[in-house]
Amino acid sequence: MSEATTIVRVPVRLTVNGKSVSAEIDPRTLLVQFLRETLDLTGTHVGCDTSQCGACVVHLDGVAVKSCTTLAVQADGASVTTIEGLATGGKLHPMQEAFRENHGLQCGFCTPGMIMSAVDLVARFGPNLDEATIRENLDGNICRCTGYHNIVKSVAAGAAAMGSAEAPRAAE
Amino acid sequence: MNASVSSSVTPIGAAVRRKEDHRFITGKGRYTDDMDRPGQAYAYFVRSPYAHARIRHIDATAAKAMPGVVDVLTGADLATDGLGDLICGWMIHSKDGSPMKMGSHPALAKEKVRYVGDHVAVVIAETLNQAKDAALAVEVEYELLPAVADLATATDGEQIHECAPRNTAFEWELGDKAATEAAFARAAKVTSIDIVNNRLAPNAIEPRAAIGEYDSGDEAFTLWTTSQNPHVARLVLSAFVGIAPENKLRVIAPDVGGGFGSKIFIYAEETVCTWAAKKVGRPVKWTGDRSEAFLSDAHGRDHITHAELAMDEAGHIIGFRVHTRANMGAYLSTFASSIPTYLYATLLSGQYAIPAIYCEVDAVYTTTAPVDAYRGAGRPEATFLLERIVEKAARERGEDPAEFRRRNFIKSFPHQTPVIMCYDAGDYVASLDKALEVADYKGFPARRAESERNGKLRGIGLSAYIEACGIAPSAAVGSLGAGVGLWESAEVRVNPTGNVEVLTGSHSHGQGHETTFAQLVSARLGIPIDQVSVVHGDTDKVQFGMGTYGSRSGAVGMSAIVKALDKVEAKAKKIAAHMLEASEGDIEFKDGRFTVAGTDRSLAFAEVALNAYVAHKFPTSEIEPGLKEGAFYDPTNFTFPAGCHICELEVDPETGVVEIKSFVAIDDFGEIINPMIVEGQVHGGIGQGIGQALMEGVTYDEDGQLVTGSYMDYTMPRAGDLPSFTVGMTQTRCPSNPLGIKGCGEAGAIGAPPAVINALTNALGTEDVPMPATPSRVWAIAQARASRLAAE
Lengths: 172, 792
Prior knowledge:
The complex is a heterodimer of chains A (172) and B (792).
Chain A: E1 10-16, E2 19-25, H1 31-38, E3 57-60, E4 63-66, E5 79-81, H2 94-101, H3 111-125, H4 131-137, H5 149-171
Parallel strand pairs in A: 1-5
Antiparallel strand pairs in A: 1-2, 3-4, 3-5
Helix pairs in contact in A: 2-5, 3-5
Chain B: H1 21-25, E1 41-47, E2 53-59, H2 61-64, E3 69-74, H3 75-80, E4 112-113, E5 119-125, H4 128-135, E6 139-144, E7 168-175, H5 177-185, E8 189-197, E9 209-215, E10 220-225, H6 230-240, E11 249-252, H7 268-280, E12 284-287, H8 290-296, E13 303-311, E14 317-329, E15 357-365, H9 379-396, H10 401-408, E16 415-416, E17 422-423, H11 428-438, H12 444-453, E18 457-466, H13 474-479, E19 488-494, E20 500-504, H14 513-525, E21 532-535, H15 553-579, E22 587-590, E23 593-596, E24 602-604, H16 605-614, E25 628-633, E26 642-651, E27 658-668, H17 675-694, E28 726-730, H18 747-764, H19 775-791
Parallel strand pairs in B: 1-12, 10-11, 14-15, 20-21, 27-28
Antiparallel strand pairs in B: 1-5, 2-4, 2-6, 3-5, 7-15, 8-13, 9-10, 9-12, 13-14, 16-17, 18-26, 19-20, 19-25, 22-23, 23-24, 26-27
């Protein structure tokens, strides 16, 4: 165990929500600890210790990962997006808007991870999501408040909104 | 009903979108673990790895020498400082009149540990990792004692507390034994049932956390904590544990990520962090991880019950006799004793006119985590028992369970049950009829036949639940043993510019009070909802309050706001009368304007608010300047939400997998302020109820080791496990509070488990289906059924 008397530090350099950040960290620092404690991005949450609940989901180079089971050093050189980075230009992301409009959250604790997973789901399956696809693919995110009913509605609505937001852009 | 507005006046009954959501969906929520205090150190608890042991010796010498360690504190340090035990605040007396046997519960164990996870020492270090590393170096010498992990045999096990022979905290009774015996003596038919109500882990997704801080200049403490009732936490930490006087202890419960009862209680961790902050002279932060939550958050349910239902020839229920053994765990948690007693047996009449009921409850200690309130708290246990035995009785009579229920429903109000409660209003036939219609009950046989053609077993099950909410009149709960009154407080502060702060003793941890309460004020004062802010969760800001649990914040918390609003309006009318040079009796207040009756002379609410503070236009010898009013509201009765839930499901006999095909919930919550939020509460409750029925169960092995200690072992419902729900309402106004509200927070968790198990027993053709009805259990039952049918 930890007989260590000197703490080893390693450098990391990555992009978080579009900003370049660098730090010297304890190599066992998890990405979620780095985000929450070093960068004070406390929107990413920790709800379990077995990589099950998904409250910690962020995007690493555009792909959803559980930041509680990713070492910060693994994100060296990568680009990370957290819930704080989802809204752009002072405008909520369609998925954020959909969660509010459809009452897809209650206590709000699982919500950041749920929204980040939902955005990833649209990236993987497109904007026309049926209920079964949504339910099956939210398997890695646990909510205790909503019974998932309104989360599923939110994800479907958010996906559709992302689709129609992208369509005109594609046409440009 | 689709008002997505926040900048307008919001009528009662509109599905106003939530004000609090913006911070949650943008990652700007402020939960306890999101906060850091300057100079803070981190706490990590050394916990007992054994269920039951004597502590011979603790040696922290090596741990204290580890890098970054600030201090290691034990129960001996607590004792030296004269700190009191954690307490249970509800006194129950046994049948023989003796008071309950409350075992000593120090925040850090002294002579003994009594469950795996019990707190032995705390390591405080510069970083959390250093605290965790050093915790491994704390040497604790234990003398092992036999675990008492099995509820059924616990009274014969090793004695856990010196004060509690046979590990019994109390043997309690309610109801008329003689009348019930007489009913059974003349019964034409008796149905009996044996029920295990499975033990659950509440699992708010935010783990508990605490930061204690001590200001040596003011000699005052601040505790940030994940609490559903910060004032109650302050009271207990002051009056019983003795950390500091109330005026020197501020408790802040900021954004709290779900509670479901588990964050009502005053736990060892926040106690120790507060106390240790002074001891080490630095803020001390602790954040629980999920494993610690499974080990030491108070669990819920865990009953073993035998019950009998007596009926006359015509199928009227004439008596109900219940004997329950309730698991209290290793210590009596904050409200633990009230759960299997006054929140349980008082609901055993359900929706039925039962003339005689007698219930005995034996509360038993085991070497497991303490058991206390979890969503529904006693009422799900009562409802599950009653709705299972009623279903069974109907089936044994060869009668449609819906019609058996209908015959026995209470149909006139008020109705005094034989178990304390006086139901004030309801229409149980209406919710049954609506549920049967929405669920297409009549079409079930055809759907069952179709399932059978596909090799599936289909079942349908009802549950007609009632709950007592809004707890409750202070004198009433006091007479039943509560150590506190259960009123609520509110303060309405109108600012000079006409916007409003509402301070409430309720606490929101997902319920959306910031929206619903603001909606109420907006509608009443005729001001836009974004001009109303709701302040809660800070003992320095809010006058005393009792917090949020038992579906009480609407019925009790909002009633207090109504009382304060009445006072605001009355005073504002006096001021308006002077401003308009009219008599006070002629002033009408409507849609945010004070008008002289019969004229077009009027003032906006904000104009009157400003003048209340400017105080130029009224005699301050008669009317005090300012516009701020407070109120304490004590309810006159419990409220009685009720409803009918119907579950239809399909079993695959080859795999044991249960698929819920439809879940219909028709509830009567009285008046509703925000239907969107109410429906959300129902959804969440149903999710937890289905979880109890099919998936969840805390398991200890015979040595008292927690087998279900993580999300790898304890099955939480996930999106793919649940269907979408069909939720509807019927409505009878609650007569006991000014808003006519009954409460909605627990209904789903109460109504769902019996509906699911009644459907499953219907599908499988046996009454013997335990919770959780996991695929392996269901598969075994389905296979036995197949063998039985083959043999016939």
